[in-house]
Amino acid sequence: MKKIVAIVGRPNVGKSTLFNRLTKSRQAIVDEYSGVTRDRQYGTCEWEGVEFTVIDTGGYVENSDDIFEKEIKKQVLLAINESNIILFMVDVITGITDLDLSVSRIIKKSNKKSYLLVNKVENTERMLDATEFYKLGFEEVFFISSINGSGTGELLDNIVENIRANSEDIEEIEKEELPKFAIIGRPNVGKSMLLNTLIGEERNIVTPISGTTRDSIHTRYTKYGFDFWLIDTAGIRKKSKISENLEFYSVMRSIKAIEQSDVCILLIDATTGIESQDMNIFYLVEKNHKGIVIVVNKWDLINKNEINTEEYTKVIKQRIAPFNDVPIIFASALTKQRIMKILQTTMEVYKNRLQKIPTSKLNETMREIIDNYPPPIVKNKEVKIKYVTQLPSHAPAFAFFCNFPQYIKDPYKRYLENKIREKYNFTGVPLRLFFRKK
Questions:
Q1: Dihedral angle at the C-alpha atoms of 246, 269, 335, 224, nearest 10 degrees?
Q2: In angstroms, how far is CA 94 from the centroid of its own chain?
Q3: What is the pLDDT of residues 359-381, one digit of tens each?
Q4: N or C, which terminus of the chain has less Cβ within 10 Å?
Q5: 3-state SS of 100-120?
Q6: Which DSSP string corresponds to 396-435?
Q7: Are 219 and 229 in contact (CB under 8 A)?
Q8: Do 209 and 189 form a contact (C-beta atoms < 8 A)?
Q9: d(CA 144, CA 150)
């Protein structure tokens, strides 16, 4: 199980800079003014082969009349409640403040694994000043600089060590043996209706009001020869529309559900078409290396004279490219149209994801493909791929060993991926290709 790591602290201590460094992105806006980060940013960090979700929270502000700062405070408290690991950031330049003391008390009450990060420690003088923060009483203290990265390597080593030591909980052990399929999508696309139709009872509340489902609900499905866990998640909304605390809670639970699942059933509303938030959810599944099945729900409401399944499929595949080897099913949870096909296809994707190709067979197949179309020559260097093997990971990943891995460009990587997909059935499954020095 991946972990959720929340970065918390008062405004303007460098939380967003650290978030950008850990996620290797510029997602979070960084500015010298406090309160710039109002919505939470979600990203993925990978270190030593371990991935975890990072949340950048707004700065914690106490007893403020500003409506935004009140919301920030509520969201920070929720982030602390829902995260597995807390990174509490302070500023060595300003020293310990009353706000720091307030945040530290809240974190200690949560009894969560926490690290105190003293930021902006960029020279020996500041290193001496940083010792003041031991007064806050945290066992794990790191002196870092989120701008230049000093100290972050040791911090990540500790986070990964903690994740590996606590990678299983009771709930996961109970469900580990069976496939886990998450029903995901924007609010009000019919997720709970689909679950109720599948299990044949009104297990979840269904209303036209988006955001009715607040938590992820696990249901064991044992009909028609199937046996797996279904996870109905709260709808994932655009962050700009998350105005109430429970909905932020729902977003975090939805992310957890994606991380815990093997295959995600992404519902799209046929009446509105594929929207930007559908794309965001799709990329979130892809980033987590989960299998995916796209279900265009409410197909019974569409005028077939205006658009047919072929045209609709073409639009979706253009939007999700280059990873468009994804099954697309046109269904209706209300009328039960193609409901069994959803289950059958999801199980097929699950089996595709478990597929292991023998190294000898893989090399025999790929050798001919590479010989017929070798990598382009770069800087007068002839790139030779000598060997390929499937890595022993949960999600399909392949390692290609060659003399100049740095010269393998994205178009050729996509070519190899497409050839693997042609030869072996990985429909609905994201593939990872790594190129290493032989």
A1: -70
A2: 35
A3: 999 999 999 999 999 999 888 88
A4: C
A5: HHHHHHHHHHHCCEEEEEEEC
A6: -EEEEEES-GGG--HHHHHHHHHHHHHHS--TT---EEEE
A7: yes
A8: no
A9: 5
Gap between the Cα atoms of 21 and 149, Å rounded: 8
Alpha helix stretches (DSSP H) within 122-201 = 124-130, 152-165, 170-175, 191-199
Those residues with Cβ within 8 angstroms of residue 425's Cβ, 6 or more apart along the chain or in another chain? 352, 355
Tokens of 57: 């929270």
Lay out the sheet containing 291-297: strands in order across: 217-221, 228-232, 180-185, 263-269, 291-297, 328-330
Calpha distance 27→5 (Å, rounded): 16
Distance CA 173, CA 157 (A): 25
Structure tokens at 15: 């939380």
Predicted local distance difference test score (pLDDT) of residue 168: 54
In tens, the pLDDT along 217-234 reads 577 788 888 888 888 765
Strand 263-269 to 291-297 pairing: parallel
Read off φ and ψ for residue 264, nearest 5 degrees.
-110, 130
CA–CA gap between residue 216 and residue 204 (Å, rounded): 11
Nearest-angstrom CA–CA distance, 110 and 356: 42
383: its two tokens: 């790139």
- The mean-pLDDT minimum among 36-50, 296-310, 317-331, 370-384 falls in 36-50
* Distance in angstroms (rounded) separating the CA atoms of residues 378 and 345: 42
H and E: helices and strands count for the chain: 13, 15
Q: Which two tokens stand for residue 17?
A: 């800079």
pTM above 0.90, yes or no: no
Q: For residue 300, what are its two tokens?
A: 């019974």
